[in-house]
Records
---
Amino acid sequence: MSTKLNILVPVKRVIDFALKPRINKAGTGIEKTGVKFSINPFCDIAVEEAVRIKEAHKSLVNKIHVVSIGPTKAQDVLRQSLAKGADSSTHIDSGEQEVEPLNVAKILKQVAEKNESNLIILGKQSIDDDSNNTGQMLAGLLNWPQATNAAKVEIKDDEVYVTREIDGGEETVKSKLPLIITTDLRLNEPRFASLPNMMKAKKKPLEKLKLKDFDVDLSARLEVLKVEEPAAREAGIKVGSVDELVAKLKDLKAI
Amino acid sequence: GSTLAFVEANGSEISSASLSALNAAKQLGNPVVAVLLGSGSKSAASQLNKVEGLSKILVSEDSQFDHQLPEYIAPAISQLISNNDYSHFVTSATAVGKNVLPRVGALLDVQPVNDIIKVEDPTTFKRPIYAGNAIVTVKSNDAKILLSTRSTAFEAVPLTASESYPVEEFTPTLEKLPVEWVSENLVKSERPELTSAKIVVSGGRGLKSKENFDKYIFPLADALHAGVGATRAAVDAGYVDNSLQVGQTGKVVAPDLYIAVGISGAIQHLAGMKDSKTIVAINKDEEAPIFNVADLGLVGDLFEVVPELTEKVKA
């Protein structure tokens, strides 16, 4: 590859994947106080992939920049990403405001332009809103190619080969830079940030911005009318033997 | 206004996910125009004559669409939407639909409503968030509404009509981007694919080893012509490939029958399977949370129960 890589990795802080989210009393959203938050698992995979590209192609990568839009606490996931090998970071303080994927993509477009990014790696979706939108939208706004749901990324000469998870299997696409990649679960297993690296990460740059620093109309397009529990399953029964199980399944016409 | 519905086909066969998206499109109450892209679109279009209640079919046989690259599909769709009076665009939330819809949203400056499970009215929809642990009702305030549909939530429209819809060809303006399709590797398993299987047999950490997973789970799946799934713990322990993972960060399945073997029922696994029609749990720990969502629970040693069950369903 003749051009140096400026990798941008947007990351999001979300309720930890192992917790069951609770709906707030007003039925307007998810209870967020007193809940453990972590980096969105797919974003963690994106950070890991960027670091692996840098480790495999040292002379090729100029820098890895991570960015997060979220409350002040989102700086924690930036620090972790810096500890894992990112070089610099930007926190865009959004307070408690929810920012829709389209508006996130518009902000990220400006961040990418400012950082002269030519490879953007993002999680395929965040496990809170589950929209699976931001990477594709950013690609559309920038008019760049997109390789979503990546299971494998290889750089060969001046092209990036991405094996993508699709319904029923995989496909491979190749593209020149600039390019957007979104990560699927199988791409890699993220490393843990060691304590010494967490200490070193405190010295790496963390730029602090606010939403109003960006020329983006943040008004929401989607109005949340209510948030509710999914329909509860009716209580089941215990069966005492395999014969009883098979008989019940036949009654239900399940087998 | 009218509704534009994106239809995927494999050769001349319309995908079942698109047939369920057409059901959602019809529920919006406006005339439905179907659009098919790529070589062979016209022959697939003729299959749509078996669907009741469409108004017309648009096709473009440009071979640039043949590998469903979103870099070409998205501008083609967004041009159709901008140049006509469509109030809605609907696609199924397949791998292709998820790849294309947000890009269309960016081109049209619209925030799509993704993966809907219910049409409340033409601007209000229900969709799962937090891996289905909550359902949000949202109203779109955009001038054009872009939707993707979860195919387990809408029945496929029947292929029983004999209409003769007008078929119109159109020619979108496509800018060439430096991306190319290289190859595909589709899983050629004798077993049904996990996300579309009518029955899924899943194994968890209770299997204790890869050898046991192979010995106990696969024969039961084969006896039931079922797909095979696994928990994150089973994948992390190396029992199976992680393409089989069911859960919040894996695949979401909703088969007619889900048999959970040696699975405790961690929240993140339940998120991936709790919409299954009938859930069976086999676990030696009667306190396991999986029993809270199971219709039929059998407390017992899976290494005895599963072989017996395998024999008895074969009989």
---
Amino acid sequence: MSWQSELDEQERRRQLAAELGGADKVARHKAAGKLTVRERVAGLVDAGSFEEIGSTAGFPEYDSEGRLVAFTPANVVCGRARLDGRDVFVTGDDFTVRGGANDGGLREKFAFAETWARRWRIPLVRLVDGTGGGGSVKHLETLGRTYLPDVPQMTEILDALSEIPIVSLGLGSVAGMGAARVCGSHYALMVRGTSQLFAAGPPVVARTGQVLDKEELGGTHVHVKNGTIDDEVQSEAEAFARARRFLSYLPASVYELPQRTPCDDPAERTAEQLISVIPRNARAVYKMRPIIEAVFDAGSWFEIGKAWGRSLITGLARLDGWPVAVLAGDPYHYGGAWTADACRKAIRMIDLAQTFHLPVVHLVDIPGFLIGKDAEASGVMRYGTQALAAVRQSTVPWCAVMVRKAFGMAGLAQRNGSPAFLRYAWPSAQWGSLPIAGGVEAAYRAVIEAAPDPAAKRAEIEARLEALQSPLRTAEAFGVEEIIDPRRTRSYLCRFAALAAPLRTTGRPSFGYRP
Amino acid sequence: MAASIVSPVAGQLLRCLVLAGDEVSPDTEVAIVEAMKMHIPVSADRSGRVARWLVAEQSLVSEGQPLLVLEG
């Protein structure tokens, strides 16, 4: 006697499940330029590493003899896998069954898929291609009643963000719960052209009088600029590659520390161009990204959120193999001034660093918060104060390199509240409560107006004050700890990373109140 | 096909660096906009020929405002 017949029956169900929503629906899905959920899983994980869980969960149909005649798989495909050799949990929506809507799944399987990774303290990758939790209003007639909106596991799903890394890839039109599952992550991507995201899709929005197609309403061009997602990619394959790369900088959970990887870029490597990269003309801009590339481990720079809050560059990188979070000003956008969006972007990166124990390197160039009518309308001081709170509440080791400007309240974002704090200044640095140009008018108005030649007087005062602005004078008063040769910045940063490594501590983050 | 080049920031259009009829490539700096006391170059980001300017030097411009029209 053997149990082979049952195993054969099980295998038959697996084969039926592999057909997803049927040949027609799969063909239509692929014609839209999208991969099937099983192709997506295969494209994401290490070859042969996917161990599916719930492979035969679904909706069977039996004949009167109790024989299986048809089978529709639940539209959640999930399981354990390995990414670059590390354990992860993957859950993918199957758009070919009920458009990926949750009513085409099994409630228990959906809950399992969303909560399992956290219980085992490994990262979760979501391949999102579905609509809301409710599915369709047709469901009302089946049920014969309505219900208060709830997702029973929602508390646990959101709390998982404080314990494990979550990456969400938006791979189709996602709305409602699908949209929330994309946003409810540490790293959210969408594929240009084949992915859209909205609170509600075009037919619902049309009822408000706004007639838009799905791309106009919620294409990547909308959401990369408002911070709803972090980045757009050109293909699903690129999304998988970026998900793997993002996770490579993070520990499996907050109960572990980010791992050092081998590094063949010498820690003592100098970068000759950095001695002259900052223009002497204070109004002239320079490119920050080549500076980032020059000081971190070769090839390790991974920018996040390039298309929004652009006066602040954020991302992950390595120093002598140690993963770190990076903030850096971009003078090409408002001279590096922190806009409301830049503040929100700073908060997102600092929270990521604090949650997963990544030391922070800040290449500082902040002329202030953005000023003017538009800036006030955007609520820059509200978000700015929130960002300052996020910075100062963070306790991970922090190293500031004062590249150029640090002025006003925004200039306080140079450093966090950690006792493990290092600060180096380039000779091109300048700082103060107020930039001279604006401040002279206010402080010396009477003197300037009384002068026979007010313009000449203003110039004379400005020149006098400029001379006092050298960072060397601040260093003499120990107002900045050390001025360094920019060419040797990398070696200082690598020593910081090594010094910071043993200070990193595991555990859940706990943020204070943010104004 | 005509396309416009927009200002990446709100500020004052300080200088127009190209004239109608000039050919530009993605790296060409077409204008300088002053914002937060910095002179911020605006790149063409695409190739084409300048059809016309939409904004005069010294005008205030908003973020995303079209500065000039490119054709080709």
